[in-house]
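User: quick one - fold this with cytidine-5'-monophosphate bound?
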Amino acid sequence: MKSLAGKKIILGITGSIAAYKAAFFVRLLVKSGAEVKVLMTESATTFISPLTLSTLSKHPVITGIADGDEWSNHVELGLWADALVIAPATANTLAKMANGICDNILNAVYLSARCPVFFAPGMDLDMWTHPSTQANIQKLLDYGNRMIEPESGELASGLIGKGRMAEPENLVKALDDFFRKVSPSQTLAGKTVLITAGPTYEPIDPVRFIGNHSSGKMGKALAEKVVERGGQVKLVLGPSKLDISQPGIEVIRITTALEMLAAAREIFAQADIAIMAAAVADFRPKFAAKEKIKKKTGEEEMTIELVKNPDIAATLGKMKTKDQVLVGFALETEKPLVNASRKLAKKGFDFIVLNSLKDEGAGFNHDTNRITLVFKDNKIKEFQLKSKLDVADDILDAIEQII
Ligand code: C5P
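Assistant: Sure. C-alpha coordinates for the protein plus cytidine-5'-monophosphate:
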Protein backbone atom coordinates (compact mmCIF):
# COMPACT_ATOMS: atom_id res chain seq x y z
CA MET A 1 0.00 0.00 0.00
CA LYS A 2 2.51 2.55 -1.23
CA SER A 3 -0.05 5.35 -1.24
CA LEU A 4 -0.22 5.30 2.57
CA ALA A 5 3.52 5.73 3.13
CA GLY A 6 4.15 8.93 5.06
CA LYS A 7 0.45 9.74 5.45
CA LYS A 8 -0.66 11.17 8.78
CA ILE A 9 -3.79 9.47 10.01
CA ILE A 10 -5.88 10.21 13.09
CA LEU A 11 -7.89 7.22 14.16
CA GLY A 12 -10.88 8.01 16.35
CA ILE A 13 -12.20 4.97 18.21
CA THR A 14 -15.65 4.97 19.76
CA GLY A 15 -17.42 2.55 22.08
CA SER A 16 -18.50 -0.41 19.96
CA ILE A 17 -17.43 -4.02 20.36
CA ALA A 18 -15.74 -3.64 16.95
CA ALA A 19 -13.18 -1.44 18.75
CA TYR A 20 -11.10 -4.61 19.20
CA LYS A 21 -10.43 -4.52 15.45
CA ALA A 22 -8.77 -1.12 15.84
CA ALA A 23 -5.57 -2.81 17.04
CA PHE A 24 -5.26 -4.74 13.73
CA PHE A 25 -6.17 -1.63 11.79
CA VAL A 26 -3.43 0.43 13.46
CA ARG A 27 -0.92 -2.34 12.82
CA LEU A 28 -1.78 -2.48 9.13
CA LEU A 29 -1.59 1.30 8.79
CA VAL A 30 1.81 1.45 10.49
CA LYS A 31 3.04 -1.44 8.32
CA SER A 32 1.98 0.56 5.25
CA GLY A 33 4.21 3.41 6.41
CA ALA A 34 1.49 5.70 7.81
CA GLU A 35 1.92 7.70 11.02
CA VAL A 36 -1.05 7.09 13.27
CA LYS A 37 -2.34 9.05 16.28
CA VAL A 38 -5.22 7.52 18.17
CA LEU A 39 -8.09 9.32 19.87
CA MET A 40 -10.58 7.40 22.00
CA THR A 41 -13.89 8.25 23.56
CA GLU A 42 -14.26 7.26 27.18
CA SER A 43 -16.54 4.35 26.34
CA ALA A 44 -14.07 3.05 23.73
CA THR A 45 -11.54 2.55 26.52
CA THR A 46 -13.86 0.00 28.12
CA PHE A 47 -13.60 -2.15 24.96
CA ILE A 48 -9.87 -1.89 24.23
CA SER A 49 -6.98 -0.59 26.25
CA PRO A 50 -5.25 2.66 25.28
CA LEU A 51 -1.97 0.92 26.15
CA THR A 52 -2.45 -1.55 23.28
CA LEU A 53 -3.04 1.29 20.86
CA SER A 54 -0.25 3.54 22.09
CA THR A 55 2.17 0.60 21.78
CA LEU A 56 1.05 -0.20 18.24
CA SER A 57 0.86 3.42 17.05
CA LYS A 58 4.04 4.48 18.90
CA HIS A 59 2.22 7.63 20.02
CA PRO A 60 0.39 8.43 23.25
CA VAL A 61 -3.35 7.84 22.97
CA ILE A 62 -5.52 10.89 23.59
CA THR A 63 -8.70 10.26 25.51
CA GLY A 64 -9.70 13.68 26.83
CA ILE A 65 -9.61 17.39 26.06
CA ALA A 66 -7.10 17.52 28.90
CA ASP A 67 -4.90 14.54 29.65
CA GLY A 68 -3.50 15.06 33.15
CA ASP A 69 -2.50 18.69 33.27
CA GLU A 70 -1.83 18.85 29.51
CA TRP A 71 -4.31 20.32 27.10
CA SER A 72 -4.84 18.37 23.88
CA ASN A 73 -4.91 20.88 21.08
CA HIS A 74 -7.74 19.64 18.90
CA VAL A 75 -7.21 22.34 16.26
CA GLU A 76 -3.55 21.42 15.83
CA LEU A 77 -4.42 17.72 15.63
CA GLY A 78 -7.08 18.37 13.02
CA LEU A 79 -4.62 20.35 10.93
CA TRP A 80 -1.85 17.76 11.33
CA ALA A 81 -3.80 14.91 9.74
CA ASP A 82 -4.05 13.89 6.09
CA ALA A 83 -7.16 11.90 7.03
CA LEU A 84 -9.36 11.42 10.07
CA VAL A 85 -10.86 7.95 10.32
CA ILE A 86 -13.54 7.19 12.87
CA ALA A 87 -13.64 3.42 13.25
CA PRO A 88 -15.73 2.03 14.72
CA ALA A 89 -18.24 4.87 14.59
CA THR A 90 -21.17 4.23 16.90
CA ALA A 91 -24.71 5.48 16.31
CA ASN A 92 -24.10 7.90 19.20
CA THR A 93 -20.93 9.41 17.71
CA LEU A 94 -22.50 9.64 14.25
CA ALA A 95 -25.44 11.49 15.76
CA LYS A 96 -23.09 13.93 17.48
CA MET A 97 -21.05 14.45 14.33
CA ALA A 98 -24.17 15.05 12.25
CA ASN A 99 -25.43 17.66 14.71
CA GLY A 100 -22.26 19.47 15.66
CA ILE A 101 -22.22 18.25 19.26
CA CYS A 102 -18.78 18.57 20.72
CA ASP A 103 -18.56 17.04 24.18
CA ASN A 104 -15.36 15.03 23.81
CA ILE A 105 -11.94 15.24 22.13
CA LEU A 106 -12.97 13.09 19.18
CA ASN A 107 -15.89 15.32 18.25
CA ALA A 108 -13.77 18.42 18.82
CA VAL A 109 -11.14 17.12 16.40
CA TYR A 110 -13.86 16.15 13.91
CA LEU A 111 -15.31 19.65 13.97
CA SER A 112 -11.95 21.32 13.54
CA ALA A 113 -10.43 18.92 10.98
CA ARG A 114 -9.88 20.24 7.47
CA CYS A 115 -8.75 16.89 6.09
CA PRO A 116 -10.98 14.22 4.52
CA VAL A 117 -13.03 12.38 7.13
CA PHE A 118 -13.90 8.69 6.90
CA PHE A 119 -16.29 6.91 9.19
CA ALA A 120 -16.78 3.16 9.50
CA PRO A 121 -20.06 2.42 11.31
CA GLY A 122 -20.05 -0.46 13.76
CA MET A 123 -23.32 -1.17 15.53
CA ASP A 124 -26.15 -3.62 15.90
CA LEU A 125 -28.60 -4.33 13.10
CA ASP A 126 -31.58 -2.36 14.44
CA MET A 127 -29.45 0.63 15.42
CA TRP A 128 -28.03 0.62 11.89
CA THR A 129 -31.43 0.45 10.20
CA HIS A 130 -33.07 3.01 12.51
CA PRO A 131 -34.25 6.01 10.49
CA SER A 132 -32.44 8.43 12.79
CA THR A 133 -29.09 6.68 12.22
CA GLN A 134 -29.70 6.59 8.47
CA ALA A 135 -30.68 10.28 8.48
CA ASN A 136 -27.52 11.18 10.41
CA ILE A 137 -25.41 9.19 7.97
CA GLN A 138 -27.03 10.93 5.02
CA LYS A 139 -26.27 14.29 6.64
CA LEU A 140 -22.64 13.31 7.17
CA LEU A 141 -22.33 12.17 3.55
CA ASP A 142 -23.92 15.43 2.39
CA TYR A 143 -21.26 17.32 4.40
CA GLY A 144 -18.65 15.52 2.28
CA ASN A 145 -17.59 12.84 4.76
CA ARG A 146 -16.88 9.39 3.38
CA MET A 147 -18.42 6.22 4.71
CA ILE A 148 -16.64 2.89 4.75
CA GLU A 149 -19.71 0.68 4.54
CA PRO A 150 -20.39 -1.83 7.30
CA GLU A 151 -20.47 -5.47 6.32
CA SER A 152 -23.17 -8.07 6.85
CA GLY A 153 -22.80 -11.07 9.09
CA GLU A 154 -23.21 -12.21 12.67
CA LEU A 155 -23.35 -9.35 15.14
CA ALA A 156 -22.27 -9.36 18.77
CA SER A 157 -25.94 -9.47 19.81
CA GLY A 158 -26.40 -12.74 17.90
CA LEU A 159 -28.51 -11.01 15.26
CA ILE A 160 -27.47 -11.50 11.68
CA GLY A 161 -27.43 -8.57 9.26
CA LYS A 162 -25.66 -5.37 8.34
CA GLY A 163 -23.80 -3.37 10.96
CA ARG A 164 -20.45 -5.13 11.43
CA MET A 165 -17.63 -2.68 11.01
CA ALA A 166 -15.63 -3.32 7.83
CA GLU A 167 -12.63 -5.60 8.39
CA PRO A 168 -9.31 -3.81 9.00
CA GLU A 169 -7.97 -4.87 5.56
CA ASN A 170 -10.98 -3.23 3.95
CA LEU A 171 -10.53 -0.05 5.99
CA VAL A 172 -6.93 0.15 4.77
CA LYS A 173 -8.04 -0.54 1.22
CA ALA A 174 -10.59 2.28 1.32
CA LEU A 175 -7.87 4.72 2.45
CA ASP A 176 -5.40 3.38 -0.09
CA ASP A 177 -7.95 3.79 -2.91
CA PHE A 178 -8.61 7.34 -1.78
CA PHE A 179 -4.97 8.42 -1.59
CA ARG A 180 -4.13 6.67 -4.86
CA LYS A 181 -6.81 8.74 -6.57
CA VAL A 182 -5.84 12.09 -5.08
CA SER A 183 -2.11 11.69 -5.50
CA PRO A 184 -1.21 8.51 -7.32
CA SER A 185 2.43 7.57 -6.84
CA GLN A 186 4.27 8.18 -10.10
CA THR A 187 5.82 4.73 -10.05
CA LEU A 188 5.81 4.35 -13.85
CA ALA A 189 7.11 7.84 -14.63
CA GLY A 190 9.36 7.78 -17.71
CA LYS A 191 8.14 4.31 -18.77
CA THR A 192 6.54 3.58 -22.13
CA VAL A 193 3.99 0.82 -21.98
CA LEU A 194 2.70 -1.01 -25.06
CA ILE A 195 -0.75 -2.51 -24.58
CA THR A 196 -2.54 -4.61 -27.20
CA ALA A 197 -6.29 -4.82 -26.70
CA GLY A 198 -9.60 -5.68 -28.28
CA PRO A 199 -10.32 -8.23 -30.97
CA THR A 200 -8.88 -8.48 -34.47
CA TYR A 201 -11.15 -8.76 -37.49
CA GLU A 202 -9.90 -10.92 -40.33
CA PRO A 203 -11.67 -10.07 -43.59
CA ILE A 204 -13.47 -12.71 -45.61
CA ASP A 205 -14.69 -10.12 -48.10
CA PRO A 206 -15.37 -6.37 -47.88
CA VAL A 207 -18.38 -6.89 -45.58
CA ARG A 208 -17.62 -10.06 -43.57
CA PHE A 209 -14.93 -11.03 -41.17
CA ILE A 210 -13.78 -13.56 -38.58
CA GLY A 211 -13.63 -11.92 -35.17
CA ASN A 212 -14.49 -12.41 -31.50
CA HIS A 213 -16.34 -10.78 -28.62
CA SER A 214 -13.40 -9.05 -26.95
CA SER A 215 -14.44 -5.56 -25.79
CA GLY A 216 -11.01 -4.06 -25.10
CA LYS A 217 -12.18 -3.00 -21.61
CA MET A 218 -9.31 -4.71 -19.77
CA GLY A 219 -6.80 -2.97 -22.05
CA LYS A 220 -8.50 0.37 -21.48
CA ALA A 221 -8.41 -0.11 -17.69
CA LEU A 222 -4.71 -0.99 -17.87
CA ALA A 223 -4.01 2.08 -20.01
CA GLU A 224 -5.80 4.40 -17.56
CA LYS A 225 -3.95 2.95 -14.59
CA VAL A 226 -0.55 3.25 -16.31
CA VAL A 227 -1.28 6.95 -16.91
CA GLU A 228 -2.36 7.36 -13.28
CA ARG A 229 1.08 6.04 -12.31
CA GLY A 230 2.86 8.47 -14.61
CA GLY A 231 3.60 6.17 -17.58
CA GLN A 232 3.03 6.77 -21.31
CA VAL A 233 0.75 4.31 -23.10
CA LYS A 234 0.75 3.18 -26.71
CA LEU A 235 -2.48 1.26 -27.05
CA VAL A 236 -2.73 -0.91 -30.16
CA LEU A 237 -6.47 -1.39 -30.29
CA GLY A 238 -8.49 -3.70 -32.50
CA PRO A 239 -12.05 -2.85 -33.62
CA SER A 240 -13.75 -1.93 -30.36
CA LYS A 241 -16.64 0.35 -29.48
CA LEU A 242 -14.63 1.99 -26.73
CA ASP A 243 -14.01 5.69 -26.94
CA ILE A 244 -10.57 6.38 -25.55
CA SER A 245 -9.22 9.88 -25.61
CA GLN A 246 -7.07 10.79 -22.67
CA PRO A 247 -3.74 12.55 -22.44
CA GLY A 248 -0.97 10.01 -22.01
CA ILE A 249 -2.72 7.33 -24.09
CA GLU A 250 -1.84 7.17 -27.78
CA VAL A 251 -4.35 4.93 -29.51
CA ILE A 252 -3.19 3.11 -32.64
CA ARG A 253 -6.28 1.69 -34.31
CA ILE A 254 -5.78 -1.48 -36.31
CA THR A 255 -8.13 -4.10 -37.74
CA THR A 256 -6.22 -7.31 -38.48
CA ALA A 257 -3.66 -9.42 -36.64
CA LEU A 258 -1.03 -8.56 -39.28
CA GLU A 259 -1.62 -4.85 -38.69
CA MET A 260 -1.45 -5.41 -34.92
CA LEU A 261 1.84 -7.29 -35.34
CA ALA A 262 3.41 -4.50 -37.42
CA ALA A 263 2.38 -1.79 -34.93
CA ALA A 264 3.35 -3.82 -31.85
CA ARG A 265 6.81 -4.73 -33.21
CA GLU A 266 7.64 -1.14 -34.00
CA ILE A 267 6.45 0.16 -30.62
CA PHE A 268 8.02 -2.65 -28.59
CA ALA A 269 11.48 -1.67 -29.82
CA GLN A 270 11.10 1.58 -27.80
CA ALA A 271 8.95 0.26 -24.93
CA ASP A 272 9.83 -0.74 -21.39
CA ILE A 273 6.78 -2.87 -20.76
CA ALA A 274 4.32 -4.71 -23.02
CA ILE A 275 0.99 -6.10 -21.91
CA MET A 276 -0.70 -8.35 -24.45
CA ALA A 277 -4.38 -8.09 -23.63
CA ALA A 278 -5.70 -8.47 -27.18
CA ALA A 279 -7.81 -11.42 -28.30
CA VAL A 280 -6.04 -12.03 -31.57
CA ALA A 281 -7.76 -14.26 -34.15
CA ASP A 282 -5.66 -17.40 -34.46
CA PHE A 283 -6.45 -17.81 -38.17
CA ARG A 284 -7.33 -15.56 -41.08
CA PRO A 285 -8.87 -16.33 -44.44
CA LYS A 286 -6.09 -17.17 -46.88
CA PHE A 287 -7.67 -14.91 -49.48
CA ALA A 288 -9.96 -11.98 -48.71
CA ALA A 289 -12.35 -11.61 -51.66
CA LYS A 290 -12.22 -8.20 -53.34
CA GLU A 291 -16.00 -8.17 -53.89
CA LYS A 292 -18.81 -9.35 -51.62
CA ILE A 293 -19.07 -13.14 -51.97
CA LYS A 294 -22.41 -14.05 -53.55
CA LYS A 295 -24.53 -17.10 -52.78
CA LYS A 296 -24.53 -19.48 -55.70
CA THR A 297 -27.75 -21.28 -56.49
CA GLY A 298 -27.74 -24.80 -55.17
CA GLU A 299 -24.68 -24.19 -52.98
CA GLU A 300 -25.32 -25.78 -49.56
CA GLU A 301 -21.80 -25.58 -48.17
CA MET A 302 -18.90 -23.31 -48.57
CA THR A 303 -15.35 -23.53 -47.34
CA ILE A 304 -13.09 -20.71 -46.35
CA GLU A 305 -9.46 -21.64 -46.35
CA LEU A 306 -7.69 -20.29 -43.29
CA VAL A 307 -4.03 -19.70 -42.56
CA LYS A 308 -2.43 -19.25 -39.17
CA ASN A 309 -1.88 -15.72 -37.91
CA PRO A 310 1.51 -14.85 -36.47
CA ASP A 311 1.74 -14.98 -32.69
CA ILE A 312 2.35 -11.34 -31.79
CA ALA A 313 3.21 -12.04 -28.16
CA ALA A 314 5.69 -14.78 -29.06
CA THR A 315 7.30 -12.48 -31.64
CA LEU A 316 7.83 -9.83 -28.97
CA GLY A 317 9.03 -12.58 -26.59
CA LYS A 318 11.87 -13.27 -29.02
CA MET A 319 12.73 -9.58 -29.39
CA LYS A 320 12.61 -8.93 -25.64
CA THR A 321 15.74 -7.67 -23.88
CA LYS A 322 16.49 -8.37 -20.23
CA ASP A 323 15.31 -4.89 -19.23
CA GLN A 324 11.88 -5.26 -20.82
CA VAL A 325 8.85 -6.79 -19.15
CA LEU A 326 6.37 -8.81 -21.20
CA VAL A 327 3.02 -9.85 -19.79
CA GLY A 328 0.39 -12.00 -21.47
CA PHE A 329 -3.16 -13.11 -20.89
CA ALA A 330 -4.60 -16.60 -21.05
CA LEU A 331 -8.17 -17.72 -21.17
CA GLU A 332 -8.16 -21.42 -20.46
CA THR A 333 -11.10 -23.73 -20.01
CA GLU A 334 -9.16 -26.93 -19.31
CA LYS A 335 -6.22 -27.48 -16.92
CA PRO A 336 -5.85 -23.70 -16.63
CA LEU A 337 -2.68 -23.57 -14.53
CA VAL A 338 -0.77 -26.17 -16.55
CA ASN A 339 -1.76 -24.59 -19.85
CA ALA A 340 -1.04 -21.07 -18.63
CA SER A 341 2.47 -21.90 -17.47
CA ARG A 342 3.16 -23.76 -20.71
CA LYS A 343 2.05 -20.68 -22.66
CA LEU A 344 4.14 -18.41 -20.42
CA ALA A 345 7.32 -20.35 -21.26
CA LYS A 346 6.48 -20.68 -24.96
CA LYS A 347 5.84 -16.98 -25.47
CA GLY A 348 8.58 -15.63 -23.20
CA PHE A 349 6.26 -13.84 -20.75
CA ASP A 350 7.48 -12.66 -17.36
CA PHE A 351 4.08 -13.63 -16.03
CA ILE A 352 0.69 -14.50 -17.41
CA VAL A 353 -2.73 -13.28 -16.35
CA LEU A 354 -5.10 -16.20 -16.28
CA ASN A 355 -8.76 -15.36 -16.48
CA SER A 356 -11.77 -17.51 -16.59
CA LEU A 357 -14.93 -17.51 -18.65
CA LYS A 358 -16.54 -19.78 -16.09
CA ASP A 359 -16.60 -17.22 -13.27
CA GLU A 360 -19.69 -15.12 -13.24
CA GLY A 361 -18.82 -11.51 -14.02
CA ALA A 362 -15.39 -12.33 -15.45
CA GLY A 363 -14.11 -12.14 -19.01
CA PHE A 364 -15.40 -10.57 -22.20
CA ASN A 365 -17.56 -7.46 -22.02
CA HIS A 366 -17.85 -7.43 -18.22
CA ASP A 367 -16.65 -4.55 -16.10
CA THR A 368 -15.27 -7.03 -13.59
CA ASN A 369 -12.70 -9.78 -13.82
CA ARG A 370 -11.21 -12.51 -11.64
CA ILE A 371 -7.60 -13.30 -12.33
CA THR A 372 -4.76 -15.54 -11.23
CA LEU A 373 -1.20 -14.49 -11.96
CA VAL A 374 1.18 -17.30 -12.92
CA PHE A 375 4.89 -16.45 -12.72
CA LYS A 376 7.98 -17.94 -14.38
CA ASP A 377 8.95 -19.83 -11.21
CA ASN A 378 5.44 -21.39 -11.13
CA LYS A 379 4.40 -19.21 -8.19
CA ILE A 380 0.76 -18.24 -8.44
CA LYS A 381 -1.24 -15.38 -6.96
CA GLU A 382 -5.03 -15.54 -6.91
CA PHE A 383 -7.35 -12.55 -6.68
CA GLN A 384 -11.05 -12.04 -5.98
CA LEU A 385 -13.58 -10.82 -8.53
CA LYS A 386 -12.88 -7.08 -8.87
CA SER A 387 -13.54 -4.18 -11.19
CA LYS A 388 -11.24 -4.23 -14.22
CA LEU A 389 -9.64 -1.02 -12.89
CA ASP A 390 -8.71 -2.77 -9.63
CA VAL A 391 -7.49 -5.80 -11.59
CA ALA A 392 -5.30 -3.44 -13.64
CA ASP A 393 -3.76 -2.17 -10.38
CA ASP A 394 -2.94 -5.73 -9.30
CA ILE A 395 -1.27 -6.42 -12.67
CA LEU A 396 0.73 -3.18 -12.55
CA ASP A 397 1.80 -3.88 -8.95
CA ALA A 398 3.19 -7.23 -10.13
CA ILE A 399 5.00 -5.55 -13.04
CA GLU A 400 6.50 -2.97 -10.71
CA GLN A 401 7.86 -5.73 -8.51
CA ILE A 402 9.77 -7.08 -11.53
CA ILE A 403 11.17 -3.72 -12.62
O1 C5P B 1 -2.29 -18.66 -27.41
P1 C5P B 1 -3.30 -17.76 -26.81
O2 C5P B 1 -4.13 -17.01 -27.80
O3 C5P B 1 -4.14 -18.37 -25.73
O4 C5P B 1 -2.38 -16.69 -26.04
C1 C5P B 1 -2.91 -15.59 -25.39
C2 C5P B 1 -1.87 -14.51 -25.24
O5 C5P B 1 -1.10 -14.35 -26.42
C3 C5P B 1 -2.53 -13.17 -25.04
O6 C5P B 1 -1.66 -12.39 -24.28
C4 C5P B 1 -2.69 -12.66 -26.46
O7 C5P B 1 -2.80 -11.26 -26.52
C5 C5P B 1 -1.41 -13.15 -27.10
N1 C5P B 1 -1.54 -13.49 -28.54
C6 C5P B 1 -0.90 -12.71 -29.50
N2 C5P B 1 -0.95 -13.07 -30.83
C7 C5P B 1 -1.65 -14.14 -31.22
C8 C5P B 1 -2.31 -14.93 -30.27
C9 C5P B 1 -2.25 -14.58 -28.94
O8 C5P B 1 -0.28 -11.71 -29.13
N3 C5P B 1 -1.70 -14.46 -32.50
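One thing worth noting: Residues 196, 257, 276, 278, 280, 309, 311-313, 328-330, 343 surround cytidine-5'-monophosphate (CB under 6 Å).
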